[in-house]
Structures are given as C-alpha cells and as structure tokens.
Amino acid sequence: MRHLIPLLLVAATHAAVAETPAFRHVQHIGGFWANDDTPLVSGFDANGDGRPDLVVPRFQSGSERWPALLFLTQGGGRFVAEELPFWQQQVWTQAMPAYAAGDFNNDGRVDFVFAETSRTLRRILGLGGGRFRNMETITAPESTFNRMTRVAAGQVDGQGATDIVALDGFTGGGTKPTSGLVAYGNTAGTTQSQGRAPTVTNAWRVALADVTATGGAGKAEILTANGAGEFGVTVHEGGTGPRLLPTLRFAPPDAQSPDFGNMPGDIGIGDIDGDGKPDAVVHYSRTGGASYLRLLLNRDTASVFAVDKELPLGSCTAYNASVRVGDYNGDGIADILVNCDDNPFAILFGRSPANCHCELVFDPPAPVASPATQGARGLGLARGDYDGDGRPDIVVVTQQSLEVYVYDAAYDRLFADGFQ
C-alpha cells in the first residue's frame, strides 16, 4: 500500500497538467459578438491606473450599438466592460476592422487608430480616465485594394514619435500591393500619409519589433507575412528610408493556391532560444485547414532570421490567431501560447535549456479550458499581469465572450518536486 500513494500522486499530477496547465478560469463576460478578424487589442493602459486594459471590436450588426468595447482591469484578474460612445454607427463601414493602440500626440496617454473604410484610418485621442474623442482621418495614398487587413503602431523611423503602419490586402485578381502605408508621427502629435514602405507581396499580417541594428538603434522594424508563405523584414535607414531585406519562406509554395495556400494568422515575437535576441514565430494555415507554427530564429543573417523547425498544432487550428511567446510555467524556458478553434487556447511548453545551441524541443499543444469554456472557439488572446502577482495571465476572446485565466499559485507548490 505504501507504494501506491506515489503512483497515484504522479497520475493526478499529469492529469492536472493536461487539463489546465498553470492557469485557472476566474471571469466570464458575455453579451456581445466579437469580431473574427481583429478580436482584441492589448498592451496599453487606457485610464492611467497602471494596469493593462483591452479593447474588443464587435462584429458589426444591427443589434450592436457601438462597434467596440473597452475592458478596464479592476485587479484580481477582473475586468469591467465600457462602451466607447464617440463612434457613430454610420461611420463604421469596415466589416473586419484593423486596430492598434499607441501614444500619437506624446502626452503620455493611450490613443487608438482603426481602419474606418478600405482607404481611411481614423485616430482617436485619449483624454485620460478612459475617455476619448475623434481626432484625425488618414487617407491611404495610391490605395485601390479591397480593405485594410492590419494596423500596427510603433517608432519606425526613430524620430521619437509613434508612427502607424497599415496593410491593404487584395483578395481578387490583378495587381497585388508590394508595400504598406506608413503615416509618420511627429512630436507635435499629428500624422501625415507620407508614403509607403516595401513589404512582401500582398502582405496579410504585420508586426513591429526592434529585431536588428541594420537600420539603426531605437527603431522598430516592419515584419510582414503573406498567404504565399513569404516573410520579410523592412528596415528604416536614416538616409534612404524604408528598405525590404531579402525575404524568407516560412512554408513551401502551394501549387493549388499559390497566393493564399499558406495564410498567416499572426507573427509572434520573443526570445525563443534564450540567446537574448528577439525571434519570430509565424502562425499559418494550409489549404485544408491544418495550422502550424514556423520558428524563425534571429541569426543576424541578411534576412535577420533563419528558418528553423515547423511545429504542427494538431486539433488547435485557427485561421486568425494570436501568438505570444513567454514563460508560462515558471521554468525559465520560453513557451508558445496560441488560440484554437476547438478550445480557447493551448500552450506549447518549451523543453530546451536557454541558449543551448541545440535543437529546440516543444511539447505538443496542451489545451487549456474550464468547464464553462470547454469547446469554445478562441478568436484571439492577450497576455499580461491582470491580478498584480507578477505572473503572466491570459485573456481569450471567444465568439460571444471574454474569458479570463490567471496564473494559479498552487501550480508552483504542486510541481515543486519536479513533476511537470
């Protein structure tokens, strides 16, 4: 009988990991339809209380009064939803809105930018305390394409002001865009559509991150991916402006659908191999629906990155995805967080020691759910410290709700003996 107790403990331990690794569900907020294409915007403090907040664009329908909800962090992993009433229904013509946040007028408050139509962006000025007002409409030059697919904000030219990068994708035949709109900011807080930056052809996803010193210090490079399986880095050089570096392939060409056979869902940024340099993870879906992650390691090549291994996601498929690199079990090794169509989200736990100069090993996707969210479709997710304990927590947007998971301190105690 003495020998059965440790065996039962091990079995219970592994069952707990498979069900909810390190996280517990603490809040459900329903009553709205989320937008499939841009499910949420995160990484900002909307009301100046020092806590991270969220915006969830709604699916546009006659029953929705306002096209977006602001979720303010209340502490303890709890949020409260507020409408953003400065929008009027008639001006929201973009069915699948692109969306980003940043401080565009250098006053220390968060502002928003979103795709209002297929050719225009609208900037919203933050007034503090979670209040906002309309500020500026930006018209994309030379734009004859279907719609804005993504918007990102960051310091692209290194001039100390927040710039806006937008992609206008083309889904039909004819000319495909080979560049993205760049609206440069200035210290006065205004922007002007000053041109376009070269990208991979018909770029569908964009991320801004400082991944190389090629364009100079203090600048975010423009990372883009398209449905043909191509990935590129655009640097902004002081004397010559933006330049696209040699591109890479994150997936082989699809003969049946050369333009859309490897549709990217997201570009995640983080130090995957522990060498201190930011790497990239491209989420993409092949024709037929299977989803994968492609690791691109920062090796200071002419393209910045080198193509590394592909990670199949199995049943964790998703056309639109959110990929977040971080340590989600406290072992000091980078893990990968991603949302799923058949479950709110899953974690691929990393198993290779940091900076080991070895093959990177990840566990298969471990789905995370609670009885209330089992089988719910995760449209997108955010990662942040929402309860103030210094650990990463997770927020997932499903089709009709916001679900909040916080890091479970009991996980540290349960696995202190090394079971993981």
Description:
Among the domains are: about 120 residues, no CATH class; about 160 residues, Methylamine Dehydrogenase, Chain H (7 Propeller). The strands form seven sheets. Strands 14, 15, 16, 17 and 18 form a five-stranded antiparallel beta sheet that branches. It has a four-stranded antiparallel beta sheet with strand order 1-29-28-27, with no helix packed on it. Strands 2-3-4-5 form a four-stranded antiparallel beta sheet, with no helix packed on it. It is mainly beta and about 425 residues long. The chain starts with a helix and ends in a 6-residue tail after the last helix. The protein contains two helices and 29 strands. The N terminus and C terminus are likely disordered. It is globular and about 55 Å long. A hairpin with a 3-residue loop joins strand 15 and strand 16. Pfam families: FG-GAP_3. InterPro entries: FG-GAP (IPR013517), Integrin_alpha_N (IPR028994). Keywords: Signal.
